[in-house]
Design a protein that fits this description.
With about 575 residues, the protein is of the alpha+beta class. It is built from 21 helices and eleven strands. It is elongated.
Length: about 575
Amino acid sequence: MNFPKTGYDWTLWLTLLMGLMAFWIWGGAYTIAPGHVGWVMSGLDTPTHYQGWQFFRHSTWWQWPIGNNPANGSDAPGTIVLSDSIPLVAIPFKLLSPLLPKDFQYFGLWALSCFFLQGWFARKLLGRLTNDPVVKLLGTAFFLSATIFLMRVYLHPALSAQWVLLAAFYLFFDTRFRALPWSILLCVTVLVHAYLFAMLLVLWFADLIQRLWRGEYTLTKVCVHCLITAFAVLALMWAAGYLVHSSTITAGIRSHLDLFFPLWTGIRVWGEWSRFLPASDMDLLAYDGFGYFGLGFILILLVAIASCVAHAAGKIHRQGSEVQPPSSWIAASVACGALFVYALGNKIYFSQRLLFSYPLVPWLDHFYDVFRASARMMWPTWYLLLFAVLYILLRSMPLRYVRYLLAFCLIVQFADLSKPVMDMRNKLAANHTWHSVMTSPLWVDLAVRYKHVGYLQPATIPVEWVTFVPSYHSVADFAAINGMTINIAYLARQDQEQMAKARAARIALLKRGLAEPETFYVVEDEPLWKQLICVPGSTLWYGTIDGLHIVVPDSLPDLSLESRAACGV
């Protein structure tokens, strides 16, 4: 099959069409609509990303860093970086905020753009191996069906920007060093997510080393390029809100990579991922290392291994637009290997069994605490392996056989992943709408009278898990759309010691019958509530609205007051 040679690159348009179809099949086009916030507010992490944006859009422009978001968790103020609200998109949309509706989410548009860019850069990358349009289109489809990409689209939208890894490999395997594109890519990525940026840093550094090794770039040029890039990246990090105290705070919980990941077809937070292979449930702490290959990918991997063995001493069929220098493959393998070793950590698991462990030096142990979801660092290895498999097939098999093989295995891949596709569509359809529990008109009166909401979650729920308290997102959404502030938020990094002190001080104040200025409280801690309504001599009002216990400094008309008869009041 050959495409006609015209002035148009039909593979480009077909690639964009494939991206659009993949987006539509995976989630449904309705997620694009900015007013459809139901699927966002019903997700696991997406409510936090959306509410970070909602608070940010109402914050002042006269602040530095620009990404500061003090209204979203005032006890230990964070930034839009820490709520994973994608600064690259949030900051421009903040300029348009006065023109936008009250309910406005951009995560559907972001998902669509990630599908387009995933396909675009996959096609560009495959152009390093072959000029054949059929192979490029079939190979692109494998990159679009990458489970590590699909899993993140509606779970953690910022991390679905894995096209930056494909763009990095495209630059890595260029015949010359592309200084400006590398700088731009690093600057863009740092405004998307810190983990993707860390991966790109390693690949960028490895590319610099290989260019120096081959004499393609002088040491002087490397130093100048590094200084300019570092200055631009640090300036953007400062502006977006990376360089705040909260960003460096560590956490005790770490995810880990299980060596069974290529065949791991189940995950507690997301269901089964294979139509044909038996489900193997994954521990919650291992879900960051989820990387099921898909049955089609596994088949071409096996064929590639067999081809290497069969043609080791024979003639190699070379089909391609560029012959990749061996040093590029070595440098890429070393860089991805280093990231993979980091992803493994110091505890090596296979099928949820700990094989062995070893101690870490203190500074590296601290680094693991900062990048606690270290298992994600295997993503570049995942993509490099897929790219390498296609490279091997093109070098070891006649072109027509590669076409047939990829077409067959792609059908297998799609059939295998049809189960998570249906599960995802059903999940999103079931959460088409979202309604806050706060429907009483009394909330409007509270929004007019007060500027701050003090939310007191159950004492058994640490602040880092506040997102799992059912009423929290309703209260946070209420505060955000009314231009108020809220004391706690679910963020990637938090000063838990400072927040614990603020909570203790707030409770001590309420137990004396006093309240903070311009503040009302939502108390979801039932034992605490029973203590508060029995505070002797208190002039505060204790009532219930829409099932939520509230404490207000002043009385409200029609407020259903809590009975204090049991306290002798």
